[in-house]
Specification:
The protein is built from 6 helices and 11 strands. The protein is of the alpha+beta class.
Length: 243
């Protein structure tokens, strides 16, 4: 167990091995973020595994959240771990079935939650190269598109993707040691602001890739937002950052 005390709750990582699943051992890496009002509120859960596909990990996460809702108002993490150890094989089988069904649908069909957008403001990056590489990896792993934007002292992260992936990115951003402090010691992001988290509207233009860009003027940054149909988003949130 690795405990990370937070001002907004507690996060911790757990690794479990499920034996003899599909003729191989599966190592599950689980990240739980317990909000301050836990267990009255379901924890945020992140799931990863080198032996499972991204879709299978998302299905495991969804099933864990379903189970968590049955245990509201009582400590539940231990029960959730026991449950997934006993039922992982069934979840994976269901995941394969659903996956096959989805391939018969048109590629234009959106996910149940639709496409969501997230705009973050970072105060600074001391270990910029490492920080940027980490953000790029998270975006790639979670299939998120968008921009990491630098303009003077302004640092913005604009992401688009499945709502569940957006939420998982937020957990990683808040709980991982992505930067270094003034003494060079690894630290978590303490000065991040969520400027906007909302469903992508039809007038928005979807980003096809995730790119890191630097802008020399505010006008250049504004054009990036305008090209994506996000003029109103820019006007509401970016100019105040210069004050």
């Amino acid at each position: 167990f690795l405990y990370f005390p937070e001002t907004h709750g507690i996060s911790f990582r757990i690794q479990i091995t499920v034996k003899e699943l599909l003729d191989t051992d599966v190592l599950l890496k689980l990240l739980f973020h317990l909000p301050v009002n836990y267990p009255s509120t379901v924890p945020d859960i992140s799931v990863s595994s080198d032996q499972l596909t991204r879709a299978q990990c998302m299905d495991v996460k969804d099933k864990l959240i379903e189970q968590a809702k049955k245990h509201l108002s009582e400590p539940m993490v231990h029960d959730l771990i026991l449950w997934i150890q006993q039922h992982l094989k069934d979840v994976i089988k269901q995941s394969a079935t659903v996956c096959n069904e989805k391939t018969t649908l048109s590629k234009g069909t959106s996910t149940e939650d639709g496409i969501w957008m997230l705009l973050l403001h970072l105060d600074h990056m001391r270990a910029k190269a490492k920080y940027v590489k980490t953000v790029e990896k998270w975006a790639s792993d979670l299939r998120l598109t968008g921009r990491l934007m630098f303009m003077g002292k302004i640092i913005l992260i604009l992401l688009q993707g499945d709502r569940s992936s957006i939420k998982e990115y937020l957990i990683l951003q808040k709980t991982s040691k992505v930067d270094v402090d003034s003494s060079g010691k690894k630290c978590k992001e303490k000065m991040m602001s969520v400027l906007c988290e909302a469903e992508v509207q039809s007038q928005y233009i979807r980003f096809q890739t995730f790119e890191v860009k630097e802008y020399s003027t505010l006008k250049e940054l504004q054009k990036e937002f305008e090209a994506a149909g996000l003029t109103a988003l820019f006007s509401e949130f970016v100019p105040p950052l210069l004050k």
